[in-house]
Amino acid sequence: MQKITYAQLDKLYNPQSRSSNDLRAVTKKISQLIAKSWLSDGEDIRKVFLSQDSDKILEMFQREGIDMGIFGPGLKVSIDTETFTGYLEETRDNQQPFNLVISYPPKPTEFNLSDQELREWVKNDDSNQLVPDNPYMPVSF
What we know:
The model has no long low-confidence stretch (mean pLDDT 86). The chain has helices at residues 6-10, 23-37, 43-51, 54-63, 115-123, and strands at residues 3-4, 75-80, 87-90, 98-103. It has one domain. It is globular and about 45 Å long. 34% of the residues lie in helices and 13% in strands. It contains five helices and four strands; from the N terminus they run βααααβββα.
């Protein structure tokens, strides 16, 4: 199996395109959803991520308006709580040819990342800011 990094996937990104399903827009929305799950009112989202259930995670993405079509049909989603870097990997499964591994690290302390900063990132709809400013903010991969 081959791992495909964000940098390699980033080559798919067309800087002229600001559609809701380009790579950076999708990863920003996932990052915002992870940030929301770290807030006190995000327990239901956190439970879905930590369930490790690909179908439930993809259903949640759909409910939240995250279009995973950029990755093609048959995508599997896995959550890795042990790392800060996710990736896309090819599988040998014809039904699910790709596995998107999303990094879901522990929430940083309030000293490094406040709930107010998380809320601001969750609400950020600036299509020109696709990556959070704070290095402790979650990124999906």
